[in-house]
Amino acid sequence: MDNKRFLLKELFTNISTTGAITFSSKSLVNKMLSYADFRGKKVIVELGGGDGSITQGIVDRMDADAKLLVFEINKAFCENLKKKFPGPNVHIIADSAENMDRYLDGKKADLILSSLPLTLINKESREDIYRKSKASIQDGGKLIQICYSYPLKYQFARYFNTIKSHLSIKNFPPTFILVCQ
Questions:
Q1: Which of 1, 13, 164, 165 sits 20 to 30 Å CA-CA off 153?
Q2: Can you say whether the dihedral through the CA atoms of 165, 119, 21, 92 is positive or negative?
Q3: In terms of Cα–Cα distance, which of 122, 177, 115 is closest to 150?
Q4: Peptide bond preceding 151: is omega within 30 degrees of 0, i.e. cis?
Q5: Residues 12, 17, 18, 21: is their CA dihedral positive or negative?
Q6: Low-confidence ranges of the chain (pLDDT < 50)
Q7: Would the CA dihedral through 39, 106, 17, 3 be positive or negative?
Q8: How many distinct structural domains can be found in the chain?
Q9: What is the pLDDT of residues 124-176, one digit of tens each?
Q10: Is 86 helix (H, G, I), strand (E, B) or coil?
Q11: pTM of this prediction?
Q12: What are the beta bridge partners of residue 35?
């Protein structure tokens, strides 16, 4: 079975944790990442690496000396990500986003980019992810989240002062991009 078919099978087999019926389109990835300035950013976190489409966009844009921490709980996706991104500055972490602070070595992220299926995550874990994201980001840093449910904006509002939302219709299904500061 080729890699693309394997990843699609994994996507559908574990829909309760992947939270998607398709991988992020190139258009969505480009739009999401257009809200981040990667120049000079040294610590970048991705929550939910999936098939690596967003990871690839980050790697293509980040500085050569930046460090990227990619959190993914699906073991098959992790193995695929490790093969796809073997470089020393990309760290694939097979752990929950709730534990991001354990991997930052006392540093704070300049950017957090997330495609986590938050509506499928239990409330306690989701709140922990919001709290840890806010605590783990530099002053002036951004958390950028793609989601299919606009009301998630109000959950982020308990932790972030400024949230801008953008709709991406060139994805199936159409997706909201929340930019939180």
A1: 13
A2: positive
A3: 177
A4: no
A5: positive
A6: 1, 15, 18-19, 21
A7: positive
A8: 1
A9: 999 999 999 999 999 999 999 999 888 999 999 999 999 999 999 887 788 99
A10: coil
A11: 0.88
A12: none
